[in-house]
Each structure stands twice: as C-alpha cells, then as structure tokens.
Design a protein that fits this description.
oxidoreductase activity, acting on the CH-OH group of donors, NAD or NADP as acceptor, Aldo/ket_reductase_CS, alpha/beta, oxidoreductase, NAD(P)_OxRdtase_dom_sf
C-alpha cells in the first residue's frame, strides 16, 4: 500500500509509475498551468498528467524545465487526441506533444478516447513508439472491457494503463477486476467527481472520524482500491491537501460504506457514446 507521495506502482513492463499525481484538465495555458505544476513539483509530486487537447502542454513543459528536478525523477503523461488518431497522424501528434513539452520522451502516452475504426491503428502507432524506445509506457483512456479486449486480440503489447472516470459514484468494479486480471494499471480521472461529492454525508462522516477532508478520504479510497489517482487543482493549499493522504488508512468498514455509494453515474461522456 502506498505510504508516501513518491511511492510507485510497477507497470507490467517494469516501469515505475507514481500512485499519485497532478492532473491539469481545464487548467489554462500560460501562468495558471505553469504555477499549478510548479506548486505541485515543489511539494514533492513527481507525476503530471496532461493531454494534447488540454492545450497546456507548453506551460507544463516550462514548469517542468524550470523546476530543476532531474528529468528521470519525473513521470509525465500526455494523450493523443481523437482528431489525430490513426497510424501516421498519431506518430506526428506525438512529435508535436514532445516539442510543446520540450521533452525528449514522455513516460506514458495514452489514446484519449476509443474512436471507433481508429483506435487499433492508433494503438499500432503507440506500439511502434514504445518498441523504438521513444516512450517508456503506453496505455489507453476511457476504454471499456470490450475496447480493451478488441485491442488485445491482435496487438503485440497489452496496454499498461487504462485511465478512466472513477469515483465513489462510478466504482467500475468489473472494469477494475478486468484490469487487475490483465496487469493493466487503472488510473482515475475526475476522482472527486468535479466536486459533486464533497458534501456527501457518508463521506463527511468518515472524513470527520479520520480528521481528514472528504477529498482526502476519496483519494485514499482510490489508492486502497489499487487505482492511481491524479486530482486536479490550481490552488496551492489544495494541491498540498490532496497529497496528504498517506498518513491514514480507511478501515474495511469505511471502504464498504464508500463502495455502497456507487450508482454507475458519470460526469463525463460514456466511452460507448461520445461524439468528438
């Protein structure tokens, strides 16, 4: 079980990925994203998750560069956007992301959404990047079990990570079990359900008992379920607070209570039904 902010899970190709990181979805390019990433890195975060479509890779890259932290100590994730999916276009999109991030490689490159008729070609491009040593790990995002099976049916490499919407209202039990059974590390986006769970009475009660915030309880629940988590914040004190989840443990009873909150409720689109 993760005991420190720098603790890592080992992906099936032996690459170590931090259990905890900073997400920068909807964080504005320029000063906002720069300060957010710089703040997180100064507080001991080692993992930053961005994406081409967020439009803030340049700010992330600048903050990483200015942090003075040796590159090999950091874990940087970005994603290929839907419009760039396909074999050649994905390879080109990767180069573009590297340029914006001012990096020689990223640690994890993900397919952002399972675009029908395209994601298998996109996966072939990711495999090539991986085999060529251009990226340390490859994975997918927003893939259901049937998408994963489809990719695995005729690929050389099993995805190392599946980053999906995951929070107490969307516990994704079958998907989590499938990922664990196939050595695919699950990772949560929107772990706090975009703030919608922060006044939940069940979570508030558990938080009070542990003298923690509701956000900290949810993030701890992620970790104890074996799910990597990347809460987003632009507020300095919140970036700090989010990371303070390694000095307490939820009991089996706490975990069970949180599990009962599941309603298969999404704040984002369903991967089987998105139009972008």
């Amino acid at each position: 079980m993760a005991k420190h902010l720098q603790d890592t899970t080992t992906l099936h190709n032996s690459v170590k990925m931090p259990w905890f990181g900073l997400g920068v979805y909807k964080v504005e390019e320029g000063d906002e994203v720069y300060q957010s990433v710089k703040s997180a890195l100064s507080k001991g975060y080692k993992s930053i998750d961005t994406a081409a479509v967020y439009g803030n890779e340049e700010g992330v890259g600048r903050a990483v560069k200015d942090s003075g932290i040796p590159r090999e100590e950091l874990f940087i994730t970005t994603k290929v956007w839907n419009a760039d999916q396909g074999y050649e276009t994905t390879l080109a999109a990767y180069e573009e992301s590297l340029k914006k991030l001012q990096l020689d490689y990223v640690d994890l490159y993900l397919i952002h959404w399972p675009v029908e008729g395209k994601y298998k070609e996109t996966w072939r491009a990711l495999e090539k990047l991986y085999i060529d040593g251009r990226v340390r790990a490859i994975g997918v995002s927003n893939f259901h079990i049937h998408h994963l099976k489809d990719v695995m049916a005729d690929s050389e490499i099993v995805p190392m990570v599946n980053q999906v919407e995951y929070h107490p209202r969307l516990a994704q039990k079958e998907l989590l079990a499938f990922c664990k059974g196939n050595n695919i590390q699950m990772e949560a986006w929107s772990p706090l359900m975009q703030g919608e769970l922060l006044n939940n009475p069940v979570l508030s009660e558990i938080a009070e008992k542990h003298n923690k915030s509701v956000a900290q309880v949810i993030l701890r629940w992620d970790l104890q379920n074996g799910v990597v988590t990347i809460p987003k914040s632009v507020k300095d004190h919140r970036i700090q607070e989010n990371s303070e989840v390694f000095d307490f443990e939820l009991s089996a009873e706490d975990m069970e209570k949180i599990n009962t909150l599941n309603e298969d409720q999404r704040v984002g689109p369903d991967p089987d039904n998105f139009d972008f």
